[in-house]
Each structure stands twice: as C-alpha cells, then as structure tokens.
C-alpha cells in the first residue's frame, strides 16, 4: 500500500470525524471509530494529530472555516453599511438552517469542552476565531462604505454572536420559523443600533 503523508491524511481524518460525529454524535467519535470510518489504523489518528483534543480542535476549525466562507461570499458589493450587515446576518442564518447538523455538532463539542481538560482551550480558540472573523467583516464593511462605528468592531461582534448563538440554540432544540425570523430581525436592528445606525424592523427583508 502506498504511503500517505500526514499532510494528506489530515483532511481525510477531519472529514471522517465530521461525517461520523454528525451522523452518530460526539460520544461516538473515539479515535478508534474515526480510524474505522476512514479505514486506517488507530495509530494513524494519533500519529497525525497527537491527541483526540487536537483532532476535535481541527474539526471545529474546519467547520468554522466552511461556514464563514459561505457567509463571506454573501457580502454584497456596493451596498451601504446597514444593508451589508443585514445581508451578512441573513447569510449566517441560512447556514444555520441549511447546515443544521454542523451547528448541532459544534454545540455538542462546546458542551463536551466545558468538562474536558485540553478541549476547553480548543473551544475558546474557536470562539475567539468566530469573534475575529465577525469583527473583521464589520470593520471591512464600515471602511468600504465610510461608516463611522460608534463602538469597537470587537464589541459589536461579541454582541451579535451572543444573540446569534441564542437563536441558534432555539433553532436546534425548539425550532419555530416565525419566532426565529422575528428574533433575527430584532438582533440585526439592535446590532446596527449599537454600531451607531438605525434600522427599523419593518425595513428589513424577511426570510
């Protein structure tokens, strides 16, 4: 059998871990089960990642990269700051509805991280990365449109993510499309108000 380098094996194992844990839950994601999913020896997982926490960190990073890439592609060209925030928020929410299994997996990993030494740092890194990406999108939208932010982009990002996480949890455990749409529109309005602008709920597109 031809030798496969760790660099080549890494994305294969990450995908196998995501596929397995999306299908069967995080509890099923042992290194042995992930190795079996890909059809390699268990030692290959440890050789490639070192520890299971490192593999789980890579899983969170990959899902985050995939989801944020979808959101970044949704940024409208030539739109004002407020319109850009609306578009990005709705694009983010579409990923929740279209990639529900990935958000469910991230939620399970976050709950596991609270009680697992070595994994809590991985989740902290994930959340910091999400905050950094969101703050960058806010900063870029403001710079592109000449909009002066009333609060630091990091503060706006943390506020939005806190509300967005709450809506995501509701969608995962008690979905209600009408309530979610109203909640998202209210969050967008509050985020824009924090940034220094004003956008009434009635002005925002639905869906």
From TrEMBL:
It holds the Pfam family TetR_C_6. Residues 30-49 bind DNA. It comes from Streptomyces hesseae. This is TetR family transcriptional regulator. Residues 7-67 form the HTH tetR-type domain. The keyword Repressor applies. Keywords: DNA-binding, Repressor, Transcription, Transcription regulation. SUPFAM superfamilies: Homeodomain-like, Tetracyclin repressor-like, C-terminal domain. PROSITE patterns: HTH_TETR_2. Transmembrane segments: none annotated.
